[in-house]
Design brief:
By secondary structure, this protein is an alpha/beta fold. It has one domain: Vaccinia Virus protein VP39 (Rossmann fold, 3-Layer(aba) Sandwich). It is 22% helix and 22% strand. The chain has 6 helices and 7 strands, in the order H-H-E-H-E-H-E-E-H-E-H-E-E. The protein has a 7-stranded mixed beta sheet. The chain is globular and about 40 Å long. 39% of the residues are buried.
């Protein structure tokens, strides 16, 4: 990988109210030390490329405008979006993950911010045309899922879109990744984001065949 600065422009908002990998609010504390995992290279979820389900979607529905990718890790999904012309922002708690993401060559208009999804800066409220979910929802403790929906809804512009790639039934009994049912997704999202389309992706990482569900949702005007 070729090093570059690849950081946010001076006018770009900070990702959260404060820097650092630990959330300020203990209610949102995560038992997993994601910074330690990235620092030690213990990241088996990183397949070295964008989600096949995302690239499959982009092949038939290019995403434009400002896009937020929560839990972006080393930025593979962010780069896939930027390469098609989106202004893509990756957000992650881990400073090491952000540093690794910034070390890749730029593919387009992308930036990476260290920050907490549950403490978005108010300048990010109503900012994004899209939120693209791949591995954030399944990684957070399930008790935080309703707060997740509030945060991503607050980040969207009225009429903005949410693309969710949900890991429904991971093979491990205990997470992360944490599984989810269609019923729970509906209970969490339906009151905030209208369901437009649902499908099972044809392309998956090895071992996830038949275990993922995609949904396209929209925030009301």
């Amino acid at each position: 990988m070729n090093a570059n600065t690849n950081s946010a422009s001076p006018s770009a908002p900070a990702g959260s109210e404060g820097k650092g990998s630990a959330p300020k609010n203990p209610v949102h504390a995560d038992p997993v030390d994601w910074e330690a995992r990235y620092r030690e290279g213990d990241t088996p979820w990183d397949e070295g490329k964008a989600s096949p389900a995302l690239t499959e979607f982009l092949s038939r529905h290019p995403i434009q405008g400002e896009v937020l990718v929560p839990g972006s890790g080393t930025g593979h999904d962010v780069r896939a979006l930027a390469s098609q012309g989106a202004t893509a922002t990756g957000l992650d708690l881990s400073v090491t993950a952000i540093s690794l993401a910034r070390s890749f060559p730029l593919t387009g208009n992308e930036r990476y911010e260290e920050g907490d999804l549950f403490q978005l800066h108010r300048s990010w409220h109503g900012r994004f045309d899209w939120v693209v979910e791949h591995t954030c929802f399944c990684a957070i403790p399930p008790r935080l899922r309703s707060d997740y929906v509030k945060s991503i809804s607050s980040a969207l512009k009225p009429g903005g879109f949410y693309l969710g790639i949900f890991y429904m039934n991971p093979p491990a009994a205990e997470g992360p990744p944490h599984g989810v049912s269609r019923y729970e997704i509906s209970a969490l999202f339906d009151s905030s984001l209208d369901l437009l389309e649902e499908w099972t992706p044809q392309e998956n990482f090895k071992g996830r065949e038949g275990r993922e569900l995609c949904q396209l949702r929209r925030l009301g005007l």
